[in-house]
Amino acid sequence: MAESRAVRTVLPTAIPALMIALIASHAFFIVRLTARQIAEKLIWEPSAEAKALEKSEEAVKRNFLEGKFDDGLEALGGTVRSQLDPNSVEGMAHRSFWRGTEEGSAAIATALKRE
């Protein structure tokens, strides 16, 4: 196969240029990651904001585990506990709503029979 003069001229310069670009982009990612880690360790972790955020997250987790959480259902007249309790009125309504045959499975079965 005959090589053209352009290929012989461009190829030796293009491959090193592409390798330099690849190495430079990877070096940039490594430098950026290192700078971010150093900044986080030196600036963010000892800050008052980070400590306040950590305390807030711990309080939310503690309240959730103790059952003292706002589940957003109180405005609708119920709570998560009432939805999970089978003896409560809301729990019985939830169970009876989902009892019975599933409408979607019948539609899927009829669609599959046609194919």
Descriptive overview:
With 115 residues, the protein is mainly alpha-helical. It is 75% helix and 0% strand. It has helices at 5-44, 48-66, 80-84, 89-98, 103-114. The longest helix is centred in the N-terminal third of the chain and has 40 residues, at 5-44.
What's the overall average pLDDT, rounded?
77
Helix percentage = over 70%
Helical stretch tally: 5
Cα gyration radius (Å): 32 Å
Strand content: under 5%
Largest β sheet strand count, sense and barrel closure: none
Uncertain segments are: none
Domain module count: 2
Give the number of DSSP strands.
Answer: 0
Structural class: mainly alpha
- Apparent shape: flat
Distance between the termini: 55 Å
Summarize the structure.
The protein is mostly helical and about 120 residues long. Helices cover about 75% and strands about 0% of the residues.
Q: What is the secondary structure topology, with strand pairs?
A:
Blueprint: H1 5-44, H2 48-66, H3 80-84, H4 89-98, H5 103-114
